[in-house]
């Protein structure tokens, strides 16, 4: 049982090529529960597509504050499992509970509002938006302005001293009539998005269109966009796909820093080195079934896992 | 110096506009608005050629301007639906008709609805619902129609939505024609009320002769609408629409309530369509089903597409061209469908993103073209 209260290995934070992000102003997210308690529970989930069994009685839990790895060979059902958790598919049998509440069958955007965000294996940014705007869409998930509020600036709030305009008539007006919630949210969203871009290390190209960003930047932008929705659980679907070893090293540092902000992280990955290096616990799937679960050391020694990855030795048959 | 100038010229108009000082922007805006208000009196020689009443057979200039502005309101509304939310609505005339019929049904003494109310509540024969009350009624009716049409159909994507909305436009018109005891059927409703106003020279302020007053009224409403529409575009709502247009599933996973925002786009579009219809019906003072044929829907879509969808100013230009040009060149009236067809084909071939597209839209078109070419190369 790993100690969840401290980062699993503090030595690897010397990320290469990343901007210094130690001075970011990101507020740690509010967590309503204690570290180590069950956050998400996949309870005997089976998912069938016609005759194909994509997930077979899969059963595991994600604990608050941990980095959980979900691994398995190609086609093992990792992404399907992800999709079931984020509302894209509804399980045929079994339940998925988030903070004790059943979420199977809930619409994807509602699941996001509950506090689960994800990235995609094949990057799915909004290509015609700038990097900053992509992240702002994520921030909007937590914003409350309505269409009517945006149109008529009808919902006024009393601004704090810091939010007041600096001088002149605008300041007096804001004092008397308040400031529209939309304006404040827009401003806060923009600022937070910039901070997130800085956090993942791509702030230098904030105003470029997402489609023009290099591959590694796009991957990180997806993470920033997911973080913007202030998730308690963030699911990364093969975040290191196509990365070279140096970039993978960076990514491991980033994943740890995400956890340190208070997010729980679920990461699907092929690369065993990365998974073993960054996770607290690992769940292994093969052919839609769970074949092992445990700490990285336990999993790395598990003969079933070795067989799944390297194949059965011939004389075992 | 010349280098700076060259660099300046290289910038697109939008960039120059964004880069200009606030004072300049306000000054330009006020000048444009002032010029727009002055247009009905335009009589300075080289410019006067744009008037449509130079020959005796020409149409009344102010009336043409009024129609242009009404269609501009339509185009701004339809641009929200097609250009921003990416929903192809081929039945927009339905909302336009609803707006016109709402004011006629409740505001005209000639309408069977008003007559029924008169006899039921023992009111005088001159009584009708006051104009000021008709406006919210018309807006609410078209809004509700938008939500009713949108709620079940917005779950459809692409072509299916287009077909359903096409049907909706026809349903409204055919219903209006056949419900004799509600809408007077094909005979239409006369005495549609006009906005109240002081009498001048013994005539009501808004009458059939002084069309420039109608134009000014519509123009004022249009300016307000553009101002509000731009607010939407540059907010979380506009971002949500764009996200839905680009990748609906990813948007949904990022917490964008796709259906809700699409329904809002539809409702906003419907409301603006209804408002334009209200202005049209009130100015004509006569509403009949044949004024709302399905080809008007196509004209509306063509305005947005030719002008450049996704860009308010593109939609405005489209509305202007497609309304003004046929009126200006009335002597070639027989050639109108031909010219319209040729123009549409030319635009689709040479500039499928529209004359003044939003830049994002232009790139989306470019991407799709590449995809199609690659697919063709593969096959």
From TrEMBL, chain A:
Gene3D superfamilies: P-loop containing nucleotide triphosphate hydrolases
Keyword ATP-binding listed: yes
Region (Disordered): 1-23
Gene Ontology MF term list: ATP binding
Record key words, sorted: ATP-binding, Nucleotide-binding, Transport
Protein name, UniProt field: ABC transporter ATP-binding protein
Tagged with keyword Isomerase: no
InterPro entries listed in its UniProt record: AAA+_ATPase, ABC_AA/LPS_Transport, ABC_transporter-like_ATP-bd, BCA_ABC_TP_C, P-loop_NTPase
Signal peptide: none
Biased composition (Polar residues): 1-12
Residue ranges occupied by any ABC transporter domain in the UniProt entry: 40-312
The organism of origin for this protein: Nocardioides potassii
PANTHER family per UniProt: AMINO ACID ABC TRANSPORTER ATP-BINDING PROTEIN, CONSERVED COMPONENT OF ABC TRANSPORTER FOR NATURAL AMINO ACIDS-RELATED
Automatic annotation (TrEMBL), chain B:
Membrane topology: Multi-pass membrane protein
Entry annotated with the keyword Membrane: yes
Alphabetical list of Pfam families matching this protein: BPD_transp_2
Transmembrane stretches, start-end: 23-41, 61-82, 89-107, 127-151, 213-229, 263-280, 292-325, 337-356
Keywords per UniProt: Cell membrane, Membrane, Transmembrane, Transmembrane helix
Keyword Translocase: no
Protein name: Branched-chain amino acid ABC transporter permease
Organism: Nocardioides potassii
